[in-house]
Amino acid sequence: MGNQEAQLYRPPGMRVLSRATVSRMPRYLRLLDDIREAQATVSSDELAEAAGVNPANVRRDLSDLGFHGTRGVGYAVGDLRSRIQRELGIDHRRKVAIVGAGNLGTALAGYSGFRQRGFDVAAIYDISSERVGRLVGDVIVTDAGRIGHDCATGLFDMAILAVPATSAQRVAEELVSAGVSSILNFAPVRVIVPNDVPVRHVDLSTELQILSYYG
Amino acid sequence: MGNQEAQLYRPPGMRVLSRATVSRMPRYLRLLDDIREAQATVSSDELAEAAGVNPANVRRDLSDLGFHGTRGVGYAVGDLRSRIQRELGIDHRRKVAIVGAGNLGTALAGYSGFRQRGFDVAAIYDISSERVGRLVGDVIVTDAGRIGHDCATGLFDMAILAVPATSAQRVAEELVSAGVSSILNFAPVRVIVPNDVPVRHVDLSTELQILSYYG
DNA sequence: TAGATTGTTAATCGATTAACAATC
DNA sequence: TAGATTGTTAATCGATTAACAATC
């Protein structure tokens, strides 16, 4: 694992979960969502099957999560579901800012997929005075100069970069110093965030390069 | 490493590169792009500094890549740059299909970021007869029934899913059986591709969940 | 109790890194 | 040659997994 992958999150007073462990959580959740009321308990074998991992791995993951099952019985479906949702931060809606009100930013603002998954667009920013003041979806385009202030005061805690390549790094740094918790970068350039900054940062352009590797 | 992460690519007659190794390549490339003509050689220390990794890690990565430097001197900048670009499949333009000509699909079709990074939109599909035939960007919306045929005949080798949650899994399976090499999923739902299928698949909705974890 | 399944130990596997001989 | 830097070995680290005692 490189530094980036090794980046860990330490909830206060809780065990450290590896990035690999966290990445399996949504796969467990998928089965739990399907089961719902149909079944009160689920075994590590069933979860493993659904997630495509080893049953021992499931038991270790849930144990690391501090969630315990009952020997001979399994894990309580509803409780486990809530526990994982809380862990992933999807037990409540998240406020996201879109930076860049161009072609892509505007489309993302109206994209129902984010909303369906619990991400609400709280703000959209641009530097162009022509765009500032316009209504995009539910929100009015704000001058990009306010990004730092708005982030620091909690208007949003997640940001989507939909800016030109030339501004991406600068905006990312501004967001980081204002304390944003996550950045999803759609700009066609790699953006570097230091490893010691507690931001989970997914660089789409890098992903595309990696993607293309498998072609 | 879960199964998903452990998925490896085996170029014919070439060493196997781990996903972790591949993920560092774009970071090396970034420095090499910056250097260009300014410097003929680069050391593992410089690459390590730029990529935020250990110098020994750099040397091992390049060695695994089959690229060798000169002791006491370093690595040839231009040659290394070409070698990595070839490895990542970004030494040539890639043809991508967008599935779904709705709000998001249309925006992505016109998004210059893809084009700038070497991804050309070769086709856009939809099932709605109202949308089929319309011009979106450079291409005319085609009936989704042709996806399998067009992929199999090489019209594109990468796909972007911009469909509703309900169709995402079905479309992904169709693309996989037609032999697509990469899928980038923008649908607001997780899509499962078996581990033994040689598709590099980045599930944006899963990433979003992981993202939110760090908030 | 008998069967099932967890939780944890110890073994295994793979990736990272320190160290240094090779050599430009 | 003297200094620099690679390429590789061996040590280390961390994550996965087989196995099984604990226990419902």
Q: Can you describe what's shown?
A:
- The structure is a homodimer of 215-residue chains.
- The first copy, chain A, has 215 residues and is an alpha/beta fold.
- Chain A folds into two domains: 70 residues, Winged helix-like DNA-binding domain superfamily/Winged helix DNA-binding domain (Arc Repressor Mutant, subunit A, Orthogonal Bundle), CATH 1.10.10; 119 residues, 3-Layer(aba) Sandwich (Rossmann fold), CATH 3.40.50.720.
- Helices cover 43% and strands 17% of the residues of chain A.
- Chains A and B meet through α1, α2, α6, α7 and α10 of A and α1, α2, α6, α7 and α10 of B.
- Chain A binds a DNA duplex (24 and 24 nucleotides) through α4.
Helix content of chain A: 40-55%
Strand content of chain A: 15-25%
Counting structural domains of chain A, the number is: 2
CATH class value of the largest domain in chain A:
Alpha Beta
Short summary:
By secondary structure, the first copy, chain A, is an alpha/beta fold. Helices cover 43% and strands 17% of the residues of chain A.
What is the strand and helix layout of this fold?
The structure is a homodimer of 215-residue chains.
Chain A: H1 3-6, H2 19-35, E1 41-42, H3 44-51, H4 55-64, E2 75-76, H5 77-88, E3 94-99, H6 103-109, H7 112-116, E4 119-126, E5 135-136, E6 139-143, H8 147-152, E7 158-161, H9 165-178, E8 182-185, E9 200-203, H10 204-213
Helix pairs in contact in A: 2-3, 2-5, 3-4
Chain A binds a DNA duplex (24 and 24 nucleotides) through α4.
Which features does this protein show?
homodimer, 215 residues, alpha/beta, Arc Repressor Mutant, subunit A, Rossmann fold, 2 domains, 7-stranded mixed beta sheet, two-stranded antiparallel ribbon, disordered C terminus, DNA-binding
